[in-house]
Amino acid sequence: MKRFIDTIKNIWAIQELREKILLTLGLLLIYRLGSNVVLPGVNTETLTSLQSQADGGLIGILNAFTGGAFANASILALGIMPYISASIVIQLLGMAVPTIQKMQKEGESGRRKLNQITRILTIGITMAQAPGYVANLMAQGVETTVSGQTFWLLSIVVLTAGTIFAMWLGERITDKGIGNGISLLIMVGIIASLPQAFLQELVSKLERSGGGMVLFVVEIAALIIVILLAVALVQAVRRVPVQYAKRTTGGRTFTGNMARQYIPLKVNASGVMPIIFAQAIMFIPVTILSYTAAGEDASGGWLITAFSDIQGFWYNFVFAVLIILFTYFYTAIQVNTNQMAEDLKRNGGFIPGIKPGKSTAEFLDTVLSRITLPGSIFLAILAILPAFAMIAGVNTQFAYFYGGTSLLIMVGVVLDTLQQIESYLLNRHYDGLMKNGKLKGRAVSAF
């Protein structure tokens, strides 16, 4: 406890770090306040059906990402998700469009151009999603205090402005605060529902037929174990030894064995993106069938039921298979083994026993494929754990924290933020957050 207090004092003693943390907390508070500001013209007394819709299923997951803003008909109801969608589109286009590939290789200037394109695409995606959200409000019987056309136009403009504002907050946090701003906004939205879900679970277990405090303690212990497994998945790497004929570090030149280093290949190089891709793909057929006559047929109705029941066998089976497939797909996008082999060859490095160039690229690709398989299976298991928690009797809202996107985002963002704080402490000659003064690995931001 004394070490923890000393660490807090050391953090507070660094003026730059203190200002960054306070700025980050202030901007996150503004985001949370905005999540409770209702769209102009909405009768808040008629939001009951919308909030009931967001209690479970895919809509419940979306509501969790926005911190309840979706169910509150907030000005930030679409949250930062359109920006995430735009970022994914740009990454995918980078595989096929030479212009974007060139920008990705231009360093800081290219990054600024891509950011501007992403912002513009975010506005377009938000304006496309906003009418769908307003239509859902009308379908759920939400009443308005203004005329229909005025409400539609006003809501689309406000929802678009809300997403742009959330995007701006995220970028301010990244540039002036601590941590990855976009990821922090998502994490804060997820954590916002944790206290209420925790209390609901506690109250339900203390009821006469709830199982008692012992069962609640067992659930908390299981949750801690799942969190530890998620941390292990995020941090796990396969170190590939690399030998350099000559290496200069810190003004000193090393040769032979002294010049040996490692390439850290992450077991889960794709992060949470496979889960997001899989959820999006599974959401498409349900949405299409719901608005077409095919959804009224026996087969169409079965598909809607099967892919909307997050506790069902077919939902979880297809979900897990899609995650495994998308893990390989996104890892192939993120990790360019050919480029890694070329960089090694250019810098005079080689993997012991492997020829430089094409053979090195093939070796790295083989290693990456082998470690991706257990990583993808483990990721799929984590993704469907909330369904098992619900089946075991855990409250729906609390069960979301037993795995899936929510848990992986929280773990990844927390580790990344702690890594940045750790760097500030070590650069100022303070002890780090951990006993050995160093966090193992490097946590990649959620997005």
From TrEMBL:
Biological process annotations from GO: intracellular protein transmembrane transport; protein targeting; protein transport by the Sec complex
Presence of keyword Cytoplasm: no
Main location group: membrane
UniProt GO cellular component terms: plasma membrane
Entry's transmembrane regions: 21-42, 75-97, 117-139, 151-169, 181-199, 211-237, 267-293, 313-333, 371-392, 398-418
Domain of life: Bacteria
The entry's keywords: Cell membrane, Membrane, Protein transport, Translocation, Transmembrane, Transmembrane helix, Transport
Pfam families referenced in this protein's UniProt entry, alphabetically: SecY
Keyword Mitochondrion: no
PROSITE patterns, alphabetized: SECY_1, SECY_2
InterPro entries in the record: SecY, SecY/SEC61-alpha, SecY_CS, SecY_dom_sf
Subcellular location per the Swiss-Prot or TrEMBL entry: Cell membrane; Membrane
Membrane topology: Multi-pass membrane protein
Family affiliation: Belongs to the SecY/SEC61-alpha family.
Assembly, per entry: Component of the Sec protein translocase complex. Heterotrimer consisting of SecY, SecE and SecG subunits. The heterotrimers can form oligomers, although 1 heterotrimer is thought to be able to translocate proteins. Interacts with the ribosome. Interacts with SecDF, and other proteins may be involved. Interacts with SecA.
Function: The central subunit of the protein translocation channel SecYEG. Consists of two halves formed by TMs 1-5 and 6-10. These two domains form a lateral gate at the front which open onto the bilayer between TMs 2 and 7, and are clamped together by SecE at the back. The channel is closed by both a pore ring composed of hydrophobic SecY resides and a short helix (helix 2A) on the extracellular side of the membrane which forms a plug. The plug probably moves laterally to allow the channel to open. The ring and the pore may move independently.
Name of the protein described by the UniProt record: Protein translocase subunit SecY
Organism: Croceimicrobium hydrocarbonivorans
